[in-house]
Amino acid sequence: MARVGMAFVLFLFSLAIACQPSISETAESMLSSDKYLEAYDVPIGYENAEGLFAKHDTTYYACFDNWMYYFDTKTQRSGKLCGKVECTHEDRDCNAYLGDIIVGSFQIYDQKIYWLGELLYRMDLDGENREEYRVVDDMGELDPRCYLHRGSIYMCGIEHNVKGANVTYTVRILRYSIENAEAEPETVLEQECQYIPKYICRFYRDKLYVLIDARLGMELSEGYKRDLYEYDIVHKELKNVWSSQDQAHTRSVSINNEGLEILNLSTDQYTMFTDPELACTLWKSQYHFADQSMTEMERYETEPGYTDQSMIENWVITSQIDVIVQEENRVDVKTKYRIYDQNWDLSGTGEYEGLASMIGEDSMGLLILTDIGSPCKALYRIPYDNMDTVEILIQHGE
Ligand SMILES: [Zn+2]
To answer: Which listed residue, 13, 123, 162, 257, has the most CB atoms within 10 A of its CB?
Structure first.
């Protein structure tokens, strides 16, 4: 009886081996899966943070001045991501300090935090076991970002090329294999532009979408040529699926199951500076995955002075930014905000410190993250039950 039992166990064991797909089969089915793969997809929901915020289980992660912070939504506690008992969390030996090079972006992939400094690093979700993970190409100094998606590393950046007196800028995306570290990277996209372009990458299942805004002239009012590319990660094919050449400029791009939702701003009114008289024209457009069409929604004129905007699905925030120079050249930024729902109905108004963008939402409210250049650095939440108030979830530099 015992021998039969052992044979049966061995039989089950061999069956289990036979049923297990090989590694390459797993990779192939992962690449083309039409489901959201939580551990292996670029997360959806916080894409407008552009790699400076992440959520894993009940924990939020945010990076300010190269320090990694956490906020535990269960305990409501926040702090630097370091569990070393003897650490003061103030010097470079702290687990939460990510290095001297400005962190381009970070992402949680397969239970680890990856970030782009002078190379690609990774560590555990609690800040332990830091590793120099991979050397990736130096993409030039402008706007580097890194994404890990379904077995590949995508390195994105803007390279600036000098030929005599002529300077041009190339948006370049390279794809590296995670499994095979020795393999040469493949070029996904290259587009040369006359002026510094803006690019936005969004991953959805087996596709990468890249929207590039290329200025047509020295003045922003001359408008933009915009191109949307779709890259099929299985067949490695790049297609231009939409183009326009007009006064429209991209402010944010959100992703949902139907397509991309784009917030557009008319550039004939665009200003880099605070202008209390200026009203801006905003509108959303939707790119549909199913038929590759773009539809525009109605235009909305903001209150005068609200010259900064960001969007997540269903919500838009417009901001009036006041820069106040204090003693000893200290600069304070106070931002007044107005929140609109998807019908452009005003849902709340209030004020917070710093330059910030709306990056997502949770069950309690809208999440607002300060930008890299902001003098005050924090993660805020504007609660749904009172959108005239602001909670501080994480604050850097206190
Ligand atoms: Zn520490």
So the answer is: 123
Q: What is the pLDDT of residues 138-166, one digit of tens each?
A: 666 789 999 999 999 999 999 999 999 99
- Residue 185 forms part of a structural domain: yes
Same domain, 63 and 125: yes
Residue 151 sits in the same domain as residue 41? yes
CA 172 – ligand 1 centroid, Å: 36
Please count the other Cβ atoms lying within 10 Å of the Cβ belonging to residue 264: 24
Radius of gyration of the chain (CA): 23
Q: Tell me, in angstroms, the distance from the centre of ligand 1 to residue 390's CA.
A: 28
> How far is 65 from 52, CA to CA, in rounded Å?
11
Ligand 1 centroid to Cα of residue 98, in Å, is 11
Q: To which residue do tokens 């949680």 refer?
A: 108
Residues with CB under 5 A from ligand 1 (ion): 82, 87, 89, 94
Cβ within 8 Å of residue 249, ≥6 positions away: 213, 220, 224, 264, 265, 266, 267, 270
Alpha carbon distance 337, 332 (integer Å) = 16
Domain end point (choices 175, 200, 225): 200
Rounded to whole angstroms, the Cα distance separating 156 from 145 reads 5
Beta bridge partners of 287: 260, 294
Same domain? 46 vs 189? yes
